[in-house]
């Protein structure tokens, strides 16, 4: 299967052989006339969109019709996701590409009626009867598209989808798999609204295959980095790559930051390594910005947790943050679901040390010193070894 890496998808996708094999099998079964549903879930930046791109590429090679849309790239209005995926693009006056006017195919009667209904509801909320009719037509459009041949429908970033599109997907799931079609949806664990949870449950009951896209293995991380720099990487850069926790986007961000800072130097025989740390500050800022989707309360609490180290006890964090333990757990549930932290016995641990160090660096210096002082007191009272308490006290000056 041909694929490309993030960002820009201009490099080979690495470390995803099993997932790509599963999707190849699903495409083959659809080509033979079956229907299949696959749900691809994983943390932000783990490569879901890259795999979706790979599936589209292979489907084209197999001669399947491909329809796709991303919820992150369409307006937040009713049926926007499905309209972008399923309705033919209407020409915009004056819009041309390098080869001339942008072509558009003729719309079917169902598509024309859908377009008219959506246009009529663009500025004012649609009446319940109009919503019901629109939902019925979208459902029929999906069901009938396989009449002309096998096809692929990719819905990327489903966690951001509008509620009306989710209602159609729920209705489709209740009716079972779509014949001669592979429906592939990608999503993050958070945010996860009640509507999406209902759709996922319905698709699961309809026989959907669930695939959790896990972080890359260390060898794949190095391979990805080397594909981006075009040379073997040295020990210092390998150490930095280990902090990404196997997240392909963080790998790409780190390599790009190193390159932008001019920190790569040749290393015999024929490799490269980092020569200075001028790239760290810009990378920290970018990583923190990547966490915006978690919400300010989650990132603020994680920033305080970063003072405690790569792993921490929630009770110690509660003392440090001067918050009830139950409140901390409620906030940290989102970080757990998102894959930013994970459970390790009675502790939570940052999955990517890159995230922890970026959050730590982003703390106000005076506030950081105060947090270390509070951490020293809390850990001493909890019976932590003197050397651990001393390390925190050392950082209060």
TrEMBL record:
Domain Orc1-like AAA ATPase: 12-178
Cited InterPro entries: AAA_16, P-loop_NTPase
UniProt protein name: Orc1-like AAA ATPase domain-containing protein
Domain of life: Bacteria
Gene Ontology terms, MF aspect: adenylate cyclase activity; ATP binding
Organism placement in taxonomy: Bacteria, Bacillati, Actinomycetota, Actinomycetes, Micrococcales
Annotated Gene Ontology cellular component terms: cytoplasm
Basic and acidic residues compositional bias, start-end: 1-13
Species of origin: Cellulomonas cellasea
Keyword line: ATP-binding, Nucleotide-binding
Region annotation Disordered: where it falls in the sequence: 1-27
Pfam family, one: AAA_16
């Amino acid at each position: 299967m041909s694929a490309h890496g993030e960002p820009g998808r201009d490099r080979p996708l690495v470390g995803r052989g099993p997932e790509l094999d599963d999707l190849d099998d699903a495409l083959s079964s659809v080509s033979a006339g079956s229907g299949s549903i696959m749900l691809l879930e994983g943390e932000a930046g783990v490569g879901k969109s890259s795999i979706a791109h790979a599936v589209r590429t292979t489907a084209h090679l197999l001669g399947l019709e491909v329809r796709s849309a991303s919820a992150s790239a369409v307006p937040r209005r009713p049926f926007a996701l499905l309209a972008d995926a399923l309705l033919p693009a209407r020409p915009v006056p004056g819009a041309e590409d390098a080869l001339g006017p942008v072509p558009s195919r003729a719309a079917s009667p169902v598509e024309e009626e859908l377009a008219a209904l959506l246009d009529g509801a663009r500025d004012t909320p649609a009446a319940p009867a109009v919503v019901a009719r629109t939902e019925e037509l979208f459902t029929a459009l999906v069901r009938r598209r396989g009449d002309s041949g096998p096809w692929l429908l990719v819905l990327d970033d489903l966690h951001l989808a509008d509620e009306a599109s989710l209602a159609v997907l729920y209705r489709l799931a209740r009716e079972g798999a779509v014949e001669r079609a592979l429906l592939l949806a990608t999503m993050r664990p958070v945010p996860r609204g009640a509507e999406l949870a209902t759709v996922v449950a319905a698709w699961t009951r309809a026989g959907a295959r669930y695939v959790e896209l896990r972080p890359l293995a260390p060898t794949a991380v190095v391979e990805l980095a080397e594909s981006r720099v075009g040379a073997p990487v040295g020990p210092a850069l390998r150490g930095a790559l280990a902090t990404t926790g196997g997240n392909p986007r963080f790998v790409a961000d780190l390599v790009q930051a190193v390159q932008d800072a001019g920190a790569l130097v040749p290393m015999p025989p024929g490799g490269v390594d980092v020569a200075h740390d001028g790239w760290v500050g810009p990378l920290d800022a970018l990583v923190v910005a990547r966490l915006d989707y978690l919400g300010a309360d989650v990132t603020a609490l994680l920033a305080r947790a970063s003072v405690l180290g790569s792993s921490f006890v929630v009770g110690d964090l509660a003392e440090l943050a001067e918050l009830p333990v139950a409140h901390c757990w409620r906030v940290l549930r989102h970080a757990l679901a998102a894959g930013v932290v994970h459970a390790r016995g009675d502790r939570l641990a940052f999955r990517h040390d890159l995230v922890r160090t970026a959050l730590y660096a982003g703390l106000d210096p005076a506030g950081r010193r105060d947090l270390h002082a509070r951490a020293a007191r809390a850990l001493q009272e909890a019976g932590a070894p003197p050397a651990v308490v001393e390390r925190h006290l050392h950082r209060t000056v």
